[in-house]
Amino acid sequence: MSTLIGKVDKPTEIKRYRDVVRKASIHGDYVIIGVGHQSTFDEKMIFRILNYDATIYINQVESKQEIYPVGSFVFYTGDKEWKSPETLKETLKNIPPEMEPYINDWRLPVVGLKTMNARKLTNQRLKEVVEISQSMFAGNYDDLRNNRKIEIENFMMAATFTRTKIKREDLPEGDEINMCEAMDRLFQRFENQGIEKGKREEKQNTLKEQLKVKLGTLSRPLEKQLTNTSLEKLNELTLNIFNVTNEEDVLRIIN
User: Fold this and answer.
1) Closest C-alpha among 143, 11, 18, 114 to residue 71
2) Considering only CA atoms, which of 199, 204, 207, 200 is closest in space to residue 244?
3) Which of 38, 32, 67 shows the shortest CA–CA distance to 52?
4) Which of 6, 133, 159, 166 could form a disulfide with 12 if both were Cys (CB 3.0 to 4.6 A apart)?
């Protein structure tokens, strides 16, 4: 979709793309449904929706086809409550009372992944994604661990929506997974990562104290770099601690 704005002699072409646009029949009447995906707040989202809708209407008029109603909403996958304005008038400031009746308003319906009612969904795949996402948002892993099979793509989609750090190799093989088995494997990985993180932090603190004693001081950049150093490199530094005479020696070992 594109439109032209600005002066006639120097028009500026503006292109706007929605995430999803579909023509649907509801009780025999056609409508055009536009969906925009947001994972964060956008106070100017109402202007984008207005632009999208107006452009679709203009395209229909210019193509001389039947003009169908356009409905839009935002599919919001953030973990915090949507607090951005949901109407044009809420976004605009200082509307003169005399002009208020003449200012057209525009609505921005927001459907939140975290709060939507999954039981009302008829599409099984979408229902699974929403249910898993909501359990991940709530940290309800007992609910995730029930003994049922789901498509692995649905699980990974929910992980993406909720920004849960799950890799494909962490899950059982196949197109479908048993949720009980999958969660047990994930718990084991998280536990192992926690143990490794604890060992690394303990090693980092010990080395920092040793280096301060040996070098007198420790610069902030080096402290920060030690914090991000792998356990393998920290062990190597420990073995060579007596050979360290300056910060350059440290950097040479851990890089």
Assistant:
1) 18
2) 207
3) 32
4) 6
Query: Considering the domain boundaries, does residue 60 fall inside one?
Result: yes
68 belongs to a structural domain: yes
Instruction: Quote the percentage of the chain above a pLDDT of 70.
Output: 79
Write down which residue in 63, 79, 112 finishes a domain: 112
pTM beyond 0.70: the answer is: no
Q: Which residues of 223-248 are buried (b: 16+ CB within 10 A; e: fewer)?
A: eeebeebeeebbeebeeeeeebeebe
Q: Is residue 27 part of a domain?
A: yes
| Position 85 in a domain | yes
End of a domain among 57, 78, 112?
112
Helices (H), 34-139: 45-62, 88-91, 124-138
Backbone angles phi and psi of 79, in degrees to 5: -90, -10
Give the model confidence (pLDDT) of 211-229 as tens digits: 876 677 888 888 888 888 8
What 3-state DSSP class applies to 22?
strand
Q: What is the pLDDT of residues 124-158, one digit of tens each?
A: 888 888 888 888 787 666 677 675 777 888 888 88
Give the residue numbers spanning the domain of 209. 200-254
pLDDT 10s digits, 79-117: 788 888 888 998 888 899 999 999 999 988 999 988 889
Return the ∠ at Cα 52 (arms to 48 and 53), rounded to 5°.
120
CA distance 36 to 44: 13
Q: What share of the chain is helix, strand, coil (3-state, %, to 5)?
A: 50, 15, 35
Higher pLDDT, 6 or 212: 212
Structural domain count, the chain: 2
Q: Say what the pLDDT of residue 57 is.
A: 92
